[in-house]
Specification:
By secondary structure, the chain is α+β, with helices and mostly antiparallel strands. It contains four helices and seven strands. Strands 1, 2, 3, 4, 5, 6 and 7 form a seven-stranded antiparallel β-sheet that branches. About 6% of the residues have low confidence.
């Protein structure tokens, strides 16, 4: 491992340790979930992130917190601004697992899913991601990616707080294409 890689690893471990300490002090559940999402975005270098909860009847995922830094999008959580997006069903109309949606797949199978490019990935329906990209402005203020034609790219989605039969939540972080 190169000296630069080692230093980067130590920086991330220090960051993770600081985040863990801050999370252990938080008592407000909305702020805690927000902090978890922000920490995941920071550690992964993601521009955007979403936190979903499993509905009470465990039939769908509900958008709880949505963030896209480069576009100034901050919905849900402690913002007081609702995330007005449809529920993501965990099952298809015929009762089969809804494996076409990455967040539903992660919840149903209790596994992390990493996608290198949402526009080239096979096996998942990214039409919602593409529609979001099409609705958002092409210019943005992020210093990390110039031009900022908003195009979601790398995605990592993982279950949170496992409970039976599905996790209590799902988090997803997305890096823009560069």
């Amino acid at each position: 491992m190169s000296k630069e890689s080692t230093l980067n690893l130590f920086r991330r471990l220090e960051q993770l340790n600081g985040i863990g300490a801050a999370l252990s002090r938080e008592r407000d559940i909305e702020r805690l979930l927000e902090n978890i999402l922000e920490a995941a975005k920071t550690i992964t270098g993601a521009d955007g992130g979403t936190l979903y909860s499993v509905t009470e009847d465990q039939s769908a995922l509900k958008f709880e917190i949505l963030r896209t830094d480069s576009l100034g999008i901050r919905l849900g959580g402690t913002t007081g601004k609702a995330v007005d997006l449809p529920l993501l069903p965990l099952r298809t109309p015929d009762g089969a697992p809804n494996d076409s949606l990455i967040a539903a797949h992660a919840a149903i199978h209790d596994r992390t899913v990493n996608i290198a490019d949402a526009y080239c990935a096979k096996g998942f329906d990214f039409s919602g991601t593409r529609a979001f990209d099409e609705r958002t402005p092409t210019g943005c203020s992020s210093p990390s990616w110039s031009g900022c034609s908003n195009r979601s790219s790398t995605s990592s989605t993982w279950p949170l707080m496992k409970s039976r039969p599905t996790p209590a939540g799902i988090a997803s972080a997305c890096l823009p294409s560069r």
